[in-house]
Amino acid sequence: MSLPPILFGGILPVREDERPSVRRLIRSGGKTSTPWRFELDEDGWYELVERLRDDPITFMGLWCDGVRIHALFSENIPGGDSRLRPLMASLVPDGPRYRGLSSVRSAASSFERMIHDLWGVEAMEAVDVRPLIDHGAWSANAPLSARAVPSLGVVASFVFETPDPAVTDRGMILPYGPATGGMEGPVHHRLGVIGGRIRSVETAGGFAHRGVTARMVGMTPAAAVELAGRISATATVAHQWTLCMAVEQALGVMVPPTAQCMRAVLAEIERIHTHLTWLARTAQAARADLVMGRLYRARETLARLCASVLGKRLLVDTIIPGGVLLSARPAEGAELGLSAAMVRLADEIAAFEEREFPEIRALWLESAGLMEMLSGAGYVSREEAATLALGGPVGRACGRGLDMRESCDAYGTVSLRTPVLTQGDALARSLIRFDDIAESLRLLAAFARELEDHKNEGPGEVCAPVPAVLERVEGYGAVEGPSGPVCHCVAMQEGRIAQVFVADPAAILSMTLEKVLSGARWEEFDVVRCSFGVSAAAADL
Fold this sequence. Notes:
This protein has about 550 residues and is of the alpha+beta class. It has helices at about 20-25, 40-50, 110-120, 165-170, 210-215, 220-230, 235-250, 255-285, 290-310, 340-350, 350-355, 355-365, 370-375, 380-385, 390-395, 425-450, 505-515, 525-530, 535-540, and strands at about 30, 35-40, 60-65, 70-75, 85-90, 95-100, 120-125, 140, 150, 170-175, 190-195, 195-205, 320, 325, 460-465, 475-480, 485-495, 495-505. It has 19 helices and 18 strands.
């Protein structure tokens, strides 16, 4: 029997948790010139990891600049405002080791592996210590570190775990990639299969690593933005917009509302193009050739419309620091003002809703074999999606409605309806992509009406001046890309890039794909892989 406590001389005080929240803990660290970045000592960093066990703060990324380890979080409440509210903790590690975050934030694993490969700084208590991009082919170990040493010059090899004894006894090891002759990115999957089902999966990447962030250091903002457009072919606009946003935030640049609207138009066109690409590849993997053909034809129609109005089939290099630039003449030779060109392009693509899109979607839904193969394949639970903070079509197919467009200034004048499903399988991810396309088409029509008042502006660019600031400044940016949130943090000094961090959803999606393939049927492998839409180049950077 539980008896109430006996009180002498007053009310029994309620003991509160003496440990501060992650937000308070980070803010108790040393202040820097950046209001959202704080310096922690070793004890503070240790306590940070401990507090992350039960604190719901959103983890965004982890990286190294050669001196410090940086952990980026967003202060927004999960399920609330989707705007990035950055809070960064920085640590100068005492030696080549630091306490890793992957034991309490599994999404940190790929970042820890990248840091170790490039900088030689080891994450203690890491859940995965496999090389991510360095497989022994580089001329130096930890090439970005001041302690870099020449490698032994051995032939590149992959370090795979010892196969499951059950696989070696009763099954087989099936390698897939990295070069298959198809359109997929260079990734090596090692599958352990028993009785037609995948029992174990190991993924080796790094073949597409180009040292993008290291190459950006020392560049002007314009040159860095141009390189950012080469991070991923399926998210060129997203990455260029995000890096521009980070530079503009650091320098205090106010982008004209017309340019913001145009950026949103370009982002929605890219979203449609990317979704059509992954839907077509999913149909191809499921051998639904008729559906695949219609989807590729629709993508070609979209590319031709862009070429006829903007002079380029792809939208790379249309977003610049301060605004939007149209440098090429339309293929038809007509001189259109930039706003008029955007209105025309948005109107013509929005008309796709009435012409082809309903037929393609109906054809997809009526393909019984395709629907049967997708249903239940590659299931991701809501709990797993929440643990990894998944966004984009994969996260929204699991019931997570996070969409950074909801809090983006460029979308402030239009109503946004974010599609969400709860089944979590390949079918749900495909249906989310169709719903996303429909919503993008509706948004394009709304943006066209908004830009009508600016049709008489001359050709060229809609851009705010970008000042040359000599002192060190830091900024951040986040945009909802076709596969989920894209985030960039940048430090500038003397008008050039001093540091840059890039977070693309491809790294987290690759981790998730590796997990969900375990237990899948062998024939589902390609379908599940394509339904995730992972860019190998964006994962490897």
